[in-house]
Amino acid sequence: MGEIMEKILASAVEEKNEKEYDVLIIGGGIAGEEAALDLAEMGFKVLLVEKEPSIGGHMFLLSKVFPTLDCASCISTPRMAAVAHHPNITLMTYSEVKEIEKRGEGDFRVKILKKPRFVEESLCTGCAQCESACPVIVPKEYDFGLRGRKAAYIPFDTAVPKIAVIDIDHCIFCGQCEIACPVGAINFLQKPKIIKVKVGAIIIATGYKLFPIGRKKEYMFGKLANVITSMQMDRLLAPTRPYNAVLRPFDGKEPMNIAFVLCAGSRDRTVGNPLCSQVCCMYSIKQAQLLMGALPLADITIYYMDIRAFGKGFEEFYQQAKDMGVIFIKGRVAKIEPAENGDVVVYYEDIENGGRLKKAVHDLVVLSVGLLPNPDIAKAFKNVKLELDEYGWIKPKDENTNPVETSIPGVFAAGCIVGPKDIPDTVVEAAAAAAHVAAYLKEVRG
Ligand SMILES: Cc1cc2nc3c(=O)[nH]c(=O)nc-3n(C[C@H](O)[C@H](O)[C@H](O)COP(=O)(O)OP(=O)(O)OC[C@H]3O[C@@H](n4cnc5c(N)ncnc54)[C@H](O)[C@@H]3O)c2cc1C
Ligand code: SF4
Ligand code: SF4
After folding, report:
1. pLDDT tens across 194-212, in order?
2. What CATH number has the domain bearing residue 331?
């Protein structure tokens, strides 16, 4: 968030009325969506708060999912629509929970900051005419900078809700969006609001953020155009992808010799993250298989320390990649350097051949980046403490027997905020958190 928006948010005015819901869910990724739908189906009134302009989280952005290779957005989109249309779910996007006070069991008082979109939600039809008219282009967050978006923009085609946003920090106030909007929805005078709610229970589903791989200087991310992250590769392979082909950023050429560097920012004390991110081995094998389909003549090499194929069908998925011709080299990549024509040299320790240091030239390198928690919400708790572990993941009441209850009775957690995990495990945890909320509310309400 830029300086202008920060100043605007500081002027937020508190609304007088307090609204009441049974459950507050914080985070609208697959964990939050699943928990919201489960609770809404049980008859509870749910408030789902998402900080971005659309729900969907990371799953919506993925290409396909391992090991079934089902289309990720085809699974996500109907769920996002179901959340938006369920009569028991109230959705607040572009909103942040600022304060949570526990007054007693089943009684939480919450303050939520509703950021201004500078677009009247009740008028906007999502026609995107403001976007077409806007002359300002900045990198698009949802495509991890692979292409641009306008300062007036719809987050993505199937955004929920499909309502435009004005990025006030980049707007040049030319007025073109106001002229283009057929329904007069643009409102530069829109103010931020603090909305007060009373809820009986809370589920935290704020998920993960990608490891900032620029911290691992030896991998030259941000310095070499043809060193990209695995999330950028998932975007390049997705049906909603930025270009209609897999192209390398340096010159738009189809890559023919692609390398994956596993454990980039995971299991690495030198960058402060000794943990395994659990999904990187499998999502890299998934991407390698998808690339074999998209670029049948390309060579694909995966540099790894160990392949952790622990889930159902994962070992077979790994074997399938080998059978398809993906090359697996056991060895940590020590450094990456530029070569000619935008190509990249990878220096690695070849463990299975005497541990010698070797080098190989590739025309595109994908860094399989790790996962870090999104724990900022812990700061919102005023009179009770949400316990986190030493790395910032939510610390469950009991790791073995009660992974979704937190240190605060009535506050539950689900998905990647509890620890890195894949989508099926996230969905199971969301269902468990919803069941625990139902039991808790029954107990405290009698
Ligand atoms: C490159 C890559 C590829 C992957 N591929 C696969 C795959 O093929 N198969 C698979 O099973 N898994 C895959 N995963 C893992 C998968 O992304 C996660 O399992 C899943 O997205 C976790 O969902 P979540 O809802 O817990 O978190 P998220 O998807 O991170 O959702 C969290 C949501 O909470 C919101 N939020 C965050 N903080 C706040 C706040 N303070 N207030 C309000 N809202 C907030 C976020 O904006 C987001 O919408 C992959 C991961 C990566 C990095
Ligand atoms: S006023 Fe701002 S958002 Fe609207 S068209 Fe101009 S630059 Fe884009
Ligand atoms: S603000 Fe106006 S022009 Fe932009 S999407 Fe909404 S209705 Fe269309």
Report:
1. 999 999 999 999 999 999 9
2. 3.50.50.60
State the total domains in the chain.
3
CB 96 within 8 A of CB 136: no
Tell me the C-alpha distance between 39 and 26, whole Å.
14
Residue with CA at minimum distance from ligand 2 atom 5: 134
Residue ID of nearest Cα to ligand 2 atom 2? 171
Least distant ligand from the CA of 184: 3
Q: Does the reported pTM lie above 0.90?
A: yes
User: What is the 150 CA–ligand 2 centroid distance (Å)?
Assistant: 8
On whether both 239 and 107 belong to a single domain, the answer is: no
- Ligand 2 contacts CB of residue 325 (under 6 A): no
* CA 141 to centroid of ligand 2, rounded, Å: 18
Question: Predicted confidence band at 399 (pLDDT cuts at 50, 70, 90)?
Answer: confident
Residues 221 and 291 in one domain: yes
pLDDT at 368 (0 to 100) = 97
DSSP 366-380: EEEE-EEE--GGGGG
* 275 and 228, same domain (yes or no): yes
Ligand 1 centroid to 393 CA: how many Å? 14
Give residue-wise pLDDT tens across range 8-63: 999 999 999 999 999 999 999 999 999 999 999 999 999 999 999 999 999 999 99
Q: Which residues on neighbouring strands pair with residue 208, listed in sequence order?
A: 373
Ligand 2 near 137 CB (within 6 A): no
Cα 374 to Cα 207, 393, 402, 417: the distances in Å are 6, 8, 21, 6
